[in-house]
Design goal:
heterodimer; A: five-stranded antiparallel beta sheet; about 55% strand; globular; B: mainly beta
Amino acid sequence: GEDVEQSLFLSVREGDSSVINCTYTDSSSTYLYWYKQEPGAGLQLLTYIFSNMDMKQDQRLTVLLNKKDKHLSLRIADTQTGDSAIYFCAESPSTDSWGKLQFGAGTQVVVTP
Amino acid sequence: AAGVIQSPRHLIKEKRETATLKCYPIPRHDTVYWYQQGPGQDPQFLISFYEKMQSDKGSIPDRFSAQQFSDYHSELNMSSLELGDSALYFCASSLLNQGASTENYGYTFGSGTRLTVV
């Protein structure tokens, strides 16, 4: 996606923390999402954050939102081999069409033993 | 918990044929979205429906049409198929949030239909 940018690849050792970064351009975005996609599989919603929040934590996942810089990150603590997948950042552009998601190109995360 | 159901899971069609993809949203969800994900690409929004009316339109070719029925299921009809239509087609459903809220009423994707045009 042109308006949502992510780094394409991340390699991390099992047990370490992973941080996946995303930048977006639409300052009116209401919700920002992180999806996980395993090979040949569907899109699994991992977590989301509303635009008036700075941080959200859900078990091993921590989402940080910097609205000023339009920067979103997903931290995965204690990364496991099962976390190997492509992670997509997505934004809802506006309250009028909040369901129309704009995806980033995806970050392929490879977890090594 | 019930999820978004898409059928078929896999579909192989020849060029110039037609295809119909079906999506059954999560019960009580009133909005359906269709996305197309080409090989190695991010999902691209095609079209959405709210309460059986088209609510938004993205990069959907004129050869494609879609509708939402009274039971809220949706069908994506694709005609004059081209090789470039080969992709994973996702459907998602949600309960449309009418007001400002920190609650997200479950924007959930189905497992997708993999269409291969030969």
